[in-house]
Amino acid sequence: AHVVEDNEIVSVDFFNNGTLVRSVSGKVIWKILERNRKLDLAIVEVSRSSLIGYRPNVIKLAPINTYISVNSKVYSMGCPYARWPMGWIGHVINNQYVIRFRPGPFPGQSGSPLIANININGQNEIRIIAIIGWRSNDQRILDSGRLKGYGIAMHVSALHNLIGEYQESERITNRIKREAEYLGQNPRSNK
């Protein structure tokens, strides 16, 4: 939501193998930006005809009750610092009300999906398990060479609750840690 701001029409870019293949107009059809940024999501609709034959890859949301265990491998992609896309592999460090993971995301990656290979009805499937929104304030490198900070993502259950047929889950949205830092272009800005 912080990316689309008050705009009703936004530009949506599609990449394939690191190459921009299509830039089209999209209509903001739903958004929520709560005070203190506990919830910060937007849904942008793109008409199929505007893609002019291009069919983007689609990754489905995981089921609402998906559980990802600590140390599970996760993947993401995004455009850090609003530049070209990149992908990375990380792991879950805590999964209670939100998913905490390492490595932490770069500024500009809020809204990127956190993806995992999960079991659905006996089949392994790649699904979106969370949406990245924050990172811890502490981004120091420890003596061991490891990064102390971590990323924080809104669990897929919150997405189902917000955009699906379920009611908003106060249990999840109210448990986001206070030390979280907004991942917009200017983390200290009030905008």
Describe it.
The chain is mostly beta strands. The protein contains two helices and ten strands, in the order E-E-E-E-E-E-E-E-E-H-H-E. It has helices at 156-163, 170-173, and strands spanning 9-16, 19-33, 40-45, 73-78, 86-95, 99-102, 113-120, 123-136, 151-155, 180-182. The protein has a six-stranded antiparallel barrel. It has a three-stranded antiparallel sheet with strand order 1-2-3, with no helix packed on it. A hairpin with a 3-residue loop joins strand 5 and strand 6 (99-102). The longest helix has 8 residues, at 156-163.
Topology:
Layout: E1 9-16, E2 19-33, E3 40-45, E4 73-78, E5 86-95, E6 99-102, E7 113-120, E8 123-136, E9 151-155, H1 156-163, H2 170-173, E10 180-182
Antiparallel strand pairs: 1-2, 2-3, 4-5, 4-7, 5-6, 6-9, 7-8, 8-9, 8-10
Overall pLDDT, averaged? 77
Shape: globular
Order of helices and strands: EEEEEEEEEHHE
The helix fraction, in percent, is under 10%
Structural class comes to mainly beta
Sheet with the most strands, sense and barrel status: 6 strands, antiparallel, barrel
Beta-strand content estimate: 35-45%
Measured on Cα atoms, how large is the radius of gyration?
Answer: 17 Å
What is the end-to-end distance? 11 Å
Question: How many helix segments?
Answer: 2
Spatial strand order of the main sheet: 4-5-6-9-8-7
Pick out the low-confidence regions: 165-191
Number of strands: 10
